[in-house]
Amino acid sequence: MARLADYFVLVGYDPGKRGSRDGQGQILQRFPEKDWEDNPFPQGIELFCQPSGWQLFTERNPPTFFVAVLTDINSERHYCACFTFWEPIESAQPQSHPRNGDGEEEEEPSSPVQPAQLFAPKSLVLVSRLDHAEVFRNSLGLIYTIYVDGLSVSLENVIGNLLTCTIPITGGAQRTISLGAGDRQVIQTPISDSLPVSSCSVALLFRQLGITNVLYLFCAALTEHKILFLSSSYQRLTDACRALLALMFPLKYSFTYVPILPAQLLEVLSTPTPFIIGVHSIFQSETQELLDVVIADLDGGTVNVPECVHISLLPEPLLQQTREALSMVLDPELEVADLAFPPSTISVSSLKMQDKEIRAVFLRLFAQLLQGYRWCLHIIRIHPEPVIRFHKAAFLGQRGLTEDDFLTKVLEGMAFAGFVTERGAPYRSIDLFDELVAYEVKRMRAEEGNKQKILRHIKELAEKLYKNENPYPAVTMHKVQKPTEGCHLRLHQKPFPRLDEGTVQWIIDQATAKLQTAPPAVKAEKKCMVPSGPPIAAIMERNGNALANSARRLEVVRNCISYVFENKMLEAKKLFPAVLRAMKGRAARHCLTQELNLHVQQNRAVLDHQQFDFIIRMMNCCLQDCTAMDEHGIAAALLPLVTAFCRKLSPGITQFAYSCVQEHVVWTNIQFWEAMFYCDVQNHIRALYLDSSEENHADEESPEEPQEAKSALEIASEQLRLWPTMSREKQQELIQKEESTVFSQAIHYANRMSYLLLPLDTSKNRLLRSSGLGDMESVSNSFVTNSIAGSVAESYDTESGFEDAESSDVANYVVRFINRFVDKVCTESGVTNEHLKGLHVMIPDIVQMHIETLDAVHRESKRLPPIQKPKLLRPNLLVGEECVMEGLRVYLMPDGREEAAGGNIGGPPLLPAEGAIFLTTYRIIFKGTPTDPLVGEQVVIRSFPIASLTKEKKINVQAQVDQFIQEGLQLRSCTFQLLKIAFDEEVASDSAEIFRKHLHKLRYPQHVRGTFAFTVGQSPKQAMQPKAKEKNPSLRTLSKNLVKNAKKTIGRQYVTRKKYTPPVWEQRGSQHFPEDNEDEISVSEEMDRSTLTPTTTMKPSDKMTINHLVERACCRDYQRLGLGTLSSSLTRSKSEPFRISTVNRMYAICRSYPGLLIVPQSIQDNTIQRISRCYRQNRFPVVCWRNSRTKAVLLRSGGLHGKGVVGLFKSQNAPTAGPSQADSTSLEQEKYLQAVINSMPHYADASGRNTLSGFTSAHMSSSDHADKRQPKLGSLMKQVMGGKDDGPGSVSRGGKWGSIRASGRMSSYALNVEIGSRLAGKELLGTHHNGTAEPGFLRPHRASLYIIGDKSQLKGVKPDPLQHWEVVPIEVFDVRQVKASFKKLMKACVPGCPSTDPSIAYLRSLEESEWLSQIHKILQISVLVVELLDTGSSVLVSLEDGWDITTQVVSLVQLLSDPYYRTLEGFRLLVEKEWLSFGHRFSHRGAQTLAGQSSGFAPIFLQFLDCVHQIHLQFPMEFEFSQYYLKFLSYHYISNRFRTFLLDSDYERIELGLLYEEKGERKSQQVYKSIWDYIDRLNKKAPIFFNYMYAPEDGEVLRPYSNISNLKVWDYYTEETLSEGPSYDWELAQGQPEPVEDADRQDTGAPQTKRKIIWPCYDNRSRVEPDAISKLLEELHNLEMELGQIPERWKDTWDKVKASQRPEVRPEGSRTPSSLLMSSGLSHHRRSLGVYLQESGVGSTLNLSLDSDTSSTSTPSSGKPGGRRSTSTLYSQFHTSESENRSYEGSLYKKGAFMKPWKPRWFVLDKTKHQLRYYDSRMDTECKGVIDLAEVESITPGTPTMGAPKTVDEKAFFDLKTTKRVYNFCAQDVPGAQQWIDRIQSCLSDA
Length: 1887
Known about the structure:
elongated; alpha+beta
């Protein structure tokens, strides 16, 4: 029972305070006068009676009533029912400030006029703890009625009765009360006091605000936001607040709750904590500046959420479902609004019922949100009263809502904490919510989506809620007197009387006395065990498919773990990656923890190192996906395991798993530790009571049955039921037992935490993770909110000592962390203070002890050899190559090339591979094995020469295996290799740095002498020592070398003192051409060049120099071309047009030219010296080739210095000695050119010719033009220069030629140009004085000499009809563009990382690189020059400095025009002549030394080789060398393995003594200094450089297509061989190939497959599966070895075969020699269109598809040396065995070669061919071998040897002796043997 009202108060206006602006109220009377003991009088009632302030009004207002709510210090709510009426006030003080009802002040002038009468408010207030608003309204109304109508009832009596009335709180009883004024009221109590009473307030709230707004408010209240209601009605504010609280049931709101806030207290609104407050809307303006308050305006129906506030809404699909349900309840018409025939009546519930229905929706919502919450409760103490904690993370994890903001915030909120305290108790009375969440969850899940069923459920619940408030349908009528209408307006109403305190007090005392004598009403509380409902897992539905999928994965996890424990490491290793992948799934992680649990015996599992390593990696992988919350309990399950698994490091020192799994954030989350602690405590306490109960009832029930196992909550409720019945001692004993259980767990956890928080290496002073450790302050249930001010509270509290955490050492830090944990859990779980103090003393000791054991473990673990890593494989090195740095363990990561990574072509990925990187004097080598265990047996090698390194950058890589980011390097080489490596953890970063430094030092040596070609064979140690820095190293070393080598190279010298400086050095200024000054001439080079200038002119007194020069390649070639023999250069025979000049023998005129040059006979040496000044780098025109048919010559030179051909020396800084000299020079130059022209025999009649029709370029005729019109030279020329017929590709700019670059992509040979377009028809630039360009006019004759020059240099050339030469200005790309293009090409072919769309990206980047456009350009110019030479005009190529693109063009022209250069010997000569002697700057372009580092790598020579490759593809029969030869050169010209391609000119090579050392210095055979010697030697051994399709036409000139569509990307750029690295270092690549299966091997039982697997990017295809010819040659070689013959050179064999083939295949009358398998019937032009056979890697071949499945190919018998019988040479290849002549056949056992077994074979004696053949079996058509009877010397009876067939008679053996070896045979029986001997004898005698 409870009092209906505690206090009655009369509050009036306080006239004493009238001076202030607002008036104040004062309590006039209160009853009872002294406070109740159980309920003190609340403060500040006078504020709440007039919330808008006490004011006087000028008129009477009708009485008002509202209920305010006050909350006292114990958070008890007091309901203050205020009934206010107005009384006139004595107008004694005229200076009062009245305020009218609006609250606006009116200034009254203090005039003598009598002011209007004023009225002051007076309030009757009832204070109660019960919320019966209607009863209060009636009671106070009654008192007012008695007073106002002057009823004859004593007010004191009524008030006394009111204050003494007691009613039951709950139970649903009705109590009728009467206050003694003839009135009667019925008070209805709710059935259950836990359900809130809302009458119709909830429905009203939804009416005022609408569904969405109320949901916003609901979520805001639950997630602890501040909520403010505005209304002009106080009663509505109270109702709205009450409704919001009712919606939150079963959660209780525990923050500030003030439904009506008085004006004086408005500053409460800026409190930092959450609140629900109502304020009168006249104060709306004051609420405007509140930033973080959600404001609901009840009158306007709006909810305003400020920008800075984010309200988390309900998780979907709950939000949508709730909305739908609410709209069904509130707006039933919505469903049928669209129906054509809507139902006539729609039942709309009454307002009260609607209110309950809405609440039912929210009740369902909470049941769905919190379903299964009881499974996440931890009961920590049962006695003296239960202590319960909620495991939030587990609940969120199991519900799958970890990411959900709303639920997370609700569970962290105060309301939920209260919910757990109140409803967590396992033994209490239960209400509607408990039943709903326990029993109806399944039903709600089933009804989802069915609106009718949902509505039915809502109605059922609403019914129950309604029943709770109105249990009885018939309510007895109230009878309360009401005042008469309008009574408040009576003028002469006397004021409210003063009541007699005595009377009231007496009535109260009487009632109290009576109550004390009455027996206490004992209400039996119906307590019971709270049902838990189904566990969450049962509720959350699962995906069947996912389960099936994960079952397979779990199987893998289980297998892998069992393999680990059974020590089957290889098996485990194979499954391991799959396990790590599976760990992404939750099920797999749970499975892992369960499986590991099975392997722990007695808390301990000792493993060996490898097992330990696997387990650790699994644990780490498992933990790395766990969040700090550990919502799935993975970390919790692993916690006992990490202290169980261990390994012995040394006697007495054990390392546990926890020291290796600390890197996870979960260990630093204090909430995780709390949850774990409580979980363990609960288990122990459960065990405590289970044990005792089982002892008692051991016989009653068998505890084995699992379903009988009671949960901790069930046990607790049982205990709580028994508690009151226990004796005092028993109770104490239980309390003590529980307390000590908790205490021992606390010690245990202090240990565990120190295990996981102290790092293995405590010396490092490393704090754990910087994140996370501070969070526990903000997360624990403090009143921290989402408000702005609240964020201050989230900063660390200062006592915890966080600010110095960074600086203090790890130990203190861990101690503090554990202390805080212990404080929190121990106070919560009621550990006594003495115990707590004891704990605080223990913790530092625990930590200290643990640190000491860790130190020992750390020391020992350092000594462990790292296991599980494959041992480093040593790479093979070349002779003279030495390791500079031992292998650093690295991972080779996959780059953008898909194939090696397994990628889209299937197969296991070869990369990433684990191995080591080695740095040698020559190469960078990676060698290792793939990490994927399926290919673990393979070896991966990737290497490239250091000299080819172009870019090195640091990267961070995630080597997938261990998931940690590691530092790495990306090394890119211009041999198209990319090493993307990640250093292993064991590699210290400083060793990685040392590696980079060494690499850099080796890549850019100070001087060429530092490169591998020179240092080879020396010990590399010197190379690595830092040299003392020299001031000018190149000067010093060069001068030394000059002196040292002077004698060797040039013999004795007469040194004259006269200085001679070639002019080019003075004019250096004029060399800075704008387009290439960036990299052509860098400062360091100039210094270098100046040092090269010889200070003395040397007169050769000795013939030696010349003899040496004559031996040079160029000289040999000149003699071959008939351009002057040496004799003619010494004894000038005038008949020759050209002579060999020795003017440059001392390299005085042109440093970069060879010593001997071809010049016109008529030109004197001194003229040459003068002419040379006109040209860049003094490179004056010299002849390099002559067409033997037309006698046209090809000349090369550098570009001109001057602006034009005429006026060559007008450049301002040339030191000219007046005009005469300049003129004379230009005249001399013209004379020089004229001399060249005169040398041509048909010069005289050439001028008459004006068409070139005689020389068609047949290869341009295209088959799709019916009228085979063939373009003439003119169009070709136009096209090179970008003429008009180019199509849209070249925009010709204002009459000039379109750039060659612009036309590069589009241009194709214009096939339909009309025949008349002649060479002469092209436009020339005439620059007139007015500056306009006009087209040249048709010239009737063809020039005898074309000068191909750079457009930019030939600006002002006038067409001079008298001269016989013509200038062809073309635009070429400069070196910078080549560099840029090459960079892009490398990125396209060897991308650093995989691109998104492989096909497009590769082709697009290839196109953007413009590499093929440049190839196209070069080929185009070359074809033009070839045409010109072929038509009899000479050509001078004079581009740039004459050593880059000039060299490319000149070499290609010779290659295309002269078949000699297409042989191995000729190509070597071409390269030596044009590239080496004529000074292509290999060292500079290859950036081979420190000086060249800045300019970077420019692949001019590579570009040339690519062009050759393109031509080779189009004319596969014209080249003696294979594609492999080109690749070989491409690789080695930058590898620095040979000295051939070092330095920039012959001059520099002589200075270093390179050129002429070869004669005497052949002692060290191993180290080849010249690449040519190496190629020669290799070529003798094996046919790798030879092209089997070589069948040249006589003197054919090649004219390749140069359109981009005809060009192919060279596979040199894209292919790689991971099994052995690049195959260009032949000694290394020749790994032992598997021995070829010998046909005579004993058959083992297993069927032997001949199948080979060839992996792209891994195997060297041509080696594993050689082409037919190579294979045959190889077999021949093997046979010769087997038969003990001296092997023949492969070339001789090949030539023989070709010779023998000729008569067979050659058709009569055909002149052309033809090769094997290639008839000459193909058209003369472009036989490439015939058989188009590509080469396959090493050794170009015909890929005849000889299947490797068939048995090994029959051997051509021509392979026998001597080859006596040419008729039968290839007989056996072309005839099957059926058509053979078989004189005798049968089966014999044959003993294989030395150490081979005996095998039965089918032998055939063939008299016709005079041979004995043998086969595998009778049916076999493939001959296994042949014994030529011509070689048989004797046949004798033999003896059985080892392994011979046992059953056979000894006499059945016989031997056959040939010149090569002895064959041992054995027949089935003796007669058989005799028969065979006779037959063979007779054959021999016949012969």
